Amino acid sequence: MPTLSAPEEIAQIRITRRSPLCWRVTIENPPINVMGPKMVREFQAIIAAIEADEDLKVVVFDSAVDGYFLNHSDFQAKVEDLTSMPAGTTGLPPWPDFLVRLTRSTRIPRQERVLKICTVTSRDWQNP
């Protein structure tokens, strides 16, 4: 009798390393890119990778879901799945920790900080 393995989890965020200097971080959690505990964990892994890469200078954030960039929290997720996550390296909960670390990019001198670019296509922009 064959054994079934658990289905592989699909990433909600993916990194495309366009060059050693430039990455594209694409959010893809259709239908509306709702952010839940899994996505927060993925953002934590991404910021750790950004901080660890000494050559990286530009990070472009975009969405693979038309009309949505990053939506609000997934209210159907278990609260414990989010609240049980350990604090990030700043001492803040994981999501604020990601935002602070992304803003600071502390691994490099101020004048050489990583440039963060966000490409957004909004439903409102498409239908003024």
Description:
The N and C termini lie far apart (58 Å). The radius of gyration is 16 Å and the shape is globular. The mean pLDDT is 81. It has a single domain (13-126), classed as 2-enoyl-CoA Hydratase, Chain A, domain 1. Helices cover 28% and strands 16% of the residues. The protein has a four-stranded mixed β-sheet with strand order 1-2-3-4, with helices on one face. It is α/β, with parallel strands linked by helices. Helix 1 packs parallel to helix 3 (94-104).
Topology diagram in text:
Blueprint (H helix, E strand, L loop, with lengths): L12 E5 L4 E6 L9 H16 L5 E6 L15 H5 L10 H11 L10 E4 L4 H4 L2
Parallel strand pairs: 2-3, 3-4
Antiparallel strand pairs: 1-2
Structure described in brief:
This protein is α/β, with parallel strands linked by helices.
How many strands, which pairing sense, and closed or not: the largest β-sheet?
4 strands, mixed
Mean pLDDT across the residues is 81
Q: Indicate the CATH topology.
A: 2-enoyl-CoA Hydratase, Chain A, domain 1
> What is the architecture at the second tier of CATH?
Alpha-Beta Complex
How are the strands ordered across the major sheet?
1-2-3-4
Rg computed from alpha carbons, rounded to a whole number of angstroms:
16 Å
C-alpha end-to-end distance:
58 Å
- Describe the global form: globular
Compute the number of structural domains: 1
User: How many strand segments?
Assistant: 4
Q: What attributes characterize this protein structure?
A:
single chain; 128 residues; alpha/beta; 2-enoyl-CoA Hydratase, Chain A, domain 1; 4 helices; 4 strands; 16% strand; globular
